[in-house]
Write a structure and sequence with these properties.
The chain is of the alpha+beta class and 349 residues long. It folds into 2 domains: 176 residues, no CATH class; 109 residues, no CATH class. It is 39% helix and 12% strand.
């Protein structure tokens, strides 16, 4: 099996457990991205960026002082926009975004959509550069601590600020299933929908940081299990680990184990050898599961995963029916950050 096939399998497996939209898994490769600009501190904004920032604040209804927000370069997000997904972050975390820079847009729009490794990198690059998560003590948390199922939503939020005047809308036409009239669907953060764990499961087993579940409550003879939400950093660590094993000629990756691994590790070690130890420790626990325990854990993971829907919904203005359509990228994923240009297209590809 080739390295690319290994990566495709792992990316698909992790994507399913992390709840990523299907469109993110069709991807492609960009190599190592380089950004000469520093995002760690403040930088002066051009006149247009000031204008765009003020426009975004006005449209989003933010009450924060516009001048102070512009000076810092970050736009605060209201956690209520995350809906129930907000429950799966610490209560004191605050989120903010900034527009994609010219360099970030260049990297995104140059990506090869047929290479999943590159596409994954460029998705994470936007999150790393343009999304900020800070706790109540002022500690900045890295992109790696974002829940996997939130990545695409935050990318769309960054896009909405980058094109704050409504440029480059992603729209496509589909037919009403009831009256066959053409309808226009618009892809944005507000149009995404999610399937959530049952409220009673959240109340009983989610303690604000992790899931703690006792299988004996369900007549399975096993000790309580602790599970942690899938994070972007864990996804990437598992992918890197699998690729390293493939390069060593190892073909012993158990895909059934991988779908549990992302939930079993709290925080992946940055050291490859230490992470390999974490994987082996989790694998030893997994190998000790009985058939009943394995079946139970399948049910658990299926029921505590937040699944982004691959459909958008709208109300048909002609017949009043609620209509759904599959999420589409009419001009490919690269079009998410493509800037409208007067330049003529070169060639037919």
């Amino acid at each position: 099996m080739s390295k690319e096939n290994d990566y495709n399998n792992l990316e698909s497996q992790i994507g399913e457990m992390g709840g990523e939209p299907q469109e993110e898994k069709k991807g492609t490769s960009l190599g190592k991205l380089k950004h000469p600009e520093s995002y760690g501190g403040k930088k002066e904004l051009a006149d247009k960026e000031h204008s765009d920032m003020a426009s975004f604040i006005a449209r989003s209804g933010k009450k924060a002082d516009a001048d102070a927000t512009v000076a810092s370069g970050w736009i605060p997000l209201d956690r209520s926009e995350l809906g129930k997904r907000s429950l799966f972050y610490d209560d004191d975390w605050e989120f903010s975004i900034r527009p994609a820079t010219v360099q970030a847009i260049k990297n995104w729009t140059s990506v090869d959509e047929e290479n999943p490794e590159e596409l994954n990198k460029v998705f994470n690059e936007i999150i790393r550069l343009c999304v900020r998560m800070v706790d109540g003590q002022g500690n900045v948390h890295t992109w790696q601590e974002m829940n996997s199922w939130d990545r695409f939503w935050f990318i769309l939020k960054v896009r909405e600020y980058t094109f704050s005047h409504g440029e480059s809308k992603i729209e496509y036409t589909d037919q009403c299933e009831n009256c066959d009239e053409d309808l226009i669907f618009t892809l944005n953060s507000a149009s995404l929908t999610y399937e959530f764990p049952d409220d009673d499961l959240i109340e009983k087993y989610w303690d604000g940081k992790k899931w703690v579940i006792d299988p004996r409550e369900y007549d399975v003879d096993a000790d309580p299990v602790t599970l942690y939400t899938p994070k972007l950093g864990k996804d990437q660590a598992i992918i890197d680990w699998a690729i390293a094993r493939a390069r060593q000629g190892r073909r012993d990756i158990d895909e059934n184990f991988i779908k549990f691994l992302v939930w079993m590790i709290s925080k992946p070690s940055r050291d490859a050898a230490n992470f390999d130890t974490q994987v082996r420790q989790a694998q030893n626990i997994y190998k000790g599961w009985t058939i009943d325990m394995n079946s139970f854990m399948n049910d658990v993971v299926r029921n505590i995963t937040i699944n982004p829907s691959e459909k958008l919904s709208t109300k048909c203005p002609h017949c009043g029916a609620e209509v759904t359509s599959n999420v589409q990228f009419p001009n490919g994923v690269r079009a998410l950050f493509e800037v409208e240009s007067k330049a003529k297209k070169f060639g037919s590809r």
